[in-house]
Amino acid sequence: MSQLRNIAVAGHGVEAWIVAAGLRRAFRARPLDVRVVATPAQPARIGRWTLPSQRGMHSLLGVNESTLLAQTGATFKLATEHFGWQGEGSRWLHAHGDIGAEMAGTPFYKFLLNELLAGRRQAPESFSLAGTAATLGKFARPMGEGRALTAGFTYGFHLDEAGYSRFLRAHALGLGATETSAPLRDVRVGENGCITGLVLADGAEITADYYVDCSGAAASLMSRVTGDDREDWSAWLPCDRMWSATAPALDDPPALTRTFAGSAGWRWRAPLAAGSLVGHVFASRFEDEAVARAELQAFEPRAGEPVLTSFSAGRRRRFWAGNCVAVGESSVALEPLAGAELHLAQLGLARFLELFPLDRASTIEADEYNRVMAEHADALRDFTLAHYRVATVPGAFWDAVRSKDPPARLAERLDLYGAGGRINLHDHETFEETDWAWLLLGGGRTPDSLELQIRLQIEKFSAQEIGALRDHVKQLAASMPRHLDFVRRVQK
Amino acid sequence: MPGPLRIVIVGGGTAGWMTAAALVSVFGPAHRQVRLIESSEIGIVGVGEATLPHIRFFNRRIGIDERELMAKTQATFKLGIEFVDWARRGDSYIHPFGAYGSRLAGVPFHHYWLRQREAGDPTPIEEYSLPIMASRANKFALPAEDPSSVLSTFGYAFQFDASLYARYLRGFSEARGVQRTDGRIVDVKLRAADGWVESVKLDSGEVVTGDLFIDCSGFRGLLIEQALKTGYDEWTKWLPCDRAMAVPCENSGPLTPYTRATAREAGWQWRIPLQHRTGNGYVYSSHFISDDEAASRLLERLDGQKLADPRPLRFTAGRRRKTWNRNVVAIGLSGGFLEPLESTSIYLIQIAITTLIDYLAPASGPSTDAGRFDPRIVDAFNRWIEMEYDRVRDFLILHYHATERDDAPIWNYCRTMPIPDSLAHKMELFRTRGHVVTYKDGLFLEPSWLAVYLGQRVMPRGHDARADLPHGTDIGTHLTRVRDSIQDALARMPMHEDFLQMYCPATLP
Predict the structure, then answer these.
(1) Do the chains contact at A356 and B464, CB–CB below 8 Å?
(2) Cβ atoms within 10 A of the Cβ of B199, count?
(3) B468 interaction partners in chain A (CB closer than 8 Å)
(4) I need a surface site. Which of A381, B65, B348, B428 has the fewest CB within 10 A?
(5) Which of B103, B364, B386, B428 to probe the A interface (max A CBs under 10 A)?
(6) Domains of chain A by range and CATH?
(7) Nearest-CA neighbor of A420 among A444, A454, A379?
(8) Distances (CA, A) of B229 to B232, B320, B328
């Protein structure tokens, strides 16, 4: 039996409530006291988009998806659509689903690579149900199992931050988490580097066996334990600011997030059931805040008052030190391009549950957690950075991003792909081979060659089968409901 | 299109013929020309008569019929490896090819077993593994496809005669177009421009040119080391055994569906049952025992009459610095050596072959330069093979290090030696809380680590906190049900010997 009896979660938003609910639900059989201590709200996010793993998070927390949609106005996300990253008029899609279906034991994207080598470019989404449905503005949940096309995709969400946070708070409190009487004022740290207590604004002091830091970029707890012991990624990912705002709803919005490459970063738009979210992510080194704000205004003149968020790409060297665990944005700062911020919080929670300390003195859990979370975080950084590596936008900002050598693992991956079209993955990666194929194909990267054994398999593909696949995808996508019709039906 | 890739394999034996068979099967004649040079004067080492379940993927990929292969190589089935006397004298555990129980609420099964054990339930974990129970009863059946059946919870491998295996693969390869040349290599010519291998010269005077050379020449590494001076990373400080004595003997007793590895005074002894005989060997460290004494100890401990004189082997545990260097790929003992404690020799050959096949990407456009290999691909290949070796290495060291034995110098050395940090970290996590570090690629999954930790008496002090389910959840009943389903399945399984007779009785070569 674990000796731990109480845990304090410091934070103010979505991440804190996810962690509080997750802890209570995983250990509902034991008397584990989970208290949430509010930390000062930083310039808030307006909203966010998530990876499909958020579905798993919801089931881990016992969240009913229909209730969530009804109460928060969230929508579905089948894909991200990137405009202008390969120059004026360019567009590519990263859908949360298979590209085609395996033939002769060979992933279908290899066929598209082979076509590319022969000088024929085909859009991956015309072979992907999620991609085609997203493009047509359609949505349905995956169905069936195995190799059925309807089982070969998944989806994430577009979420309004305040609504989602309220919803998760109610859920966590329903699971038995509690809130302290007042927000955090100070952190007491003992000589051994362990937190000994939290002082609240009303003067009360609380202690816990373990402390989870979900306070976002401020890292209110962890910064007191390990200081500013961070790895800086800003040379690779120079974007450090985001203006974001709400805007009126688009007519019939598709189930996808859109990004638009700009001169010193990128703008985005995400649909909600009754409105939309827009933002502009940029590097302050290359663009003035006021100019960036005006750019957002020009992008969406009907946008409301924008809020500015600051961050600096990087991660903590230690995610877990002593009796303090930094989960989510308190440990990793990454621009939202891949939509992986909540995924990181989820991984942090899942790994903490898996390695939940059996006693307060043990340190091996922290070592393992730090090893694994660093790999996860670095892999997400690489996937985010890869968007920039395949971009061909001119300008000082883009030149700067491209001129910096990528981290070794990403360089190796791009090299291997560049030489023979092969995509190798490591342990603890979020994005799979197909995700990389979406990105590399979409980004227009043509390998110099393709694996011989794959070429031999592709020779066995029949043109008829490929045509049938394309038709089948089109028919299935056409038969799906409009995205918002589906959302409204679920909300009822 | 470029012309076919001219591939020259230097050396027969298990590695050479496995490589030849795979290359001719996967690539058609338009893409390759495979030539194998071996000398009938030089005997083969015949490493690894015991295999791992992965070999079945290899067979399937290159189109080898399993029953035919088994019949022609005197093969038996293998469900795991029994380790005797490793942590303490008198101990026995089996490392099975299959899982213990199944995950419950996302938590690995063994945490529930640990929890029950803390509560006083003495049931050994063996009883939750069908392949272990079948091994103990000398039974065998093919696994089932239906994932809900307990018969789907295991895999199997083969134990076969390595010389017959090489002979079988030779027939298979020659029938598909491999050109075999009997000859000894007397000279290797490197291209002046870049130091790549241009040709090898045979004792007949013939000069054989090629685009890609596969070095299957054994420990000496005729091309990879003698010609290219690639270098070798030694791991002797962790894996001190450097010699072996091998001897076959007559069968006695029931035919076991598993290999046995018994810890000895200066190493360990293998026992591999085949249909017609039993293979035996003593793997030892020359620091701790003389060759003569090793031979006589081995002979004293045979189950049946010896069928030949003991044959000595020498090796150094470690890995070639680059498995693929310029246009030479080292496969088999030329690429590295890890003692056969976990039957990994053939696996490491297989993984080098399939990785090579998977990575080869000759230019697809019009080009005559088929013999150019993109360094980006070569580097990725080498990193992959390195990862495979390193993961096997840690797993092997665990067997030696996690022992309580203090009755012989070798065990005192291994018990107290410093181990790689990666392994120390894994062991500490298991000891603290039964947590098994898992990885995506490479050999040995969670059940393997679990079997060896527990078998070597690395006992966890705690278990995953999530396995403490709400009161009223009856874990005990769940565990009993797993045991019962295994007993039911076991009762219906035939004896290993009977199954072999029905499935693949040996045909005389």
Answers:
(1) yes
(2) 16
(3) 1-2, 27, 29-30
(4) B65
(5) B364
(6) 6-74+159-232+317-380 (3.50.50.60)
(7) A454
(8) 9, 10, 12
Question: What residues of chain B score a pLDDT lower than 70?
Answer: 1-2, 43-48, 364-371, 470-473, 509
Q: Cα A351 vs. chain centroid, distance in angstroms?
A: 17
Contacts of A142 (CB under 8 A, 6+ apart): A150, A151, A152, A153, A154, A155
SS3 A223: helix
Calpha distance A354→A344 (Å, rounded): 15
- Gap from B402 CA to chain A (nearest CA, Å): 18
Per-residue model confidence as pLDDT tens digits over A193-217: 999 999 999 999 999 999 999 999 9
- Rounded to an integer, what distance in angstroms lies between the CA atom of residue A473 and that of residue A463? 15
A447 SS3 class: coil
Q: Which amino acid is at B462?
A: G
Smallest Cα–Cα separation from B238: which of B347, B339, B87? B339
Helix axes A408-420 and A364-389, enclosed angle (nearest 10): 50
E-strand ranges in A161-274 read 178-179, 184-189, 195-200, 205-206, 210-214, 230-232, 241-247, 256-261, 265-272
Cα radius of gyration (chain A): 23
Domains of chain B in sequence order: 5-75+160-235+317-390 (3.50.50.60), 243-314 (no CATH)
Note whether A16 and A36 are within 8 A (CB): yes
What 3-state DSSP class applies to A326? strand
Residue A319 has pLDDT above 90, yes or no: yes
By the 8 A CB rule, do A405 and A411 touch?
yes
Of B175, B163, B165, which Cα lies nearest the Cα of B40? B163
DSSP B4: P
Radius of gyration of chain B (CA): 24
d(C-alpha A78, C-alpha A73), whole Å: 17
Run of H or E including B181: strand B179-182
Contact between B361 and A367 using a beta-carbon 8 Å cutoff? no
How many residues can be counted in chain B?
509
**What is the three-class DSSP state of A259?**
strand
Specify the pLDDT at position B368: 46
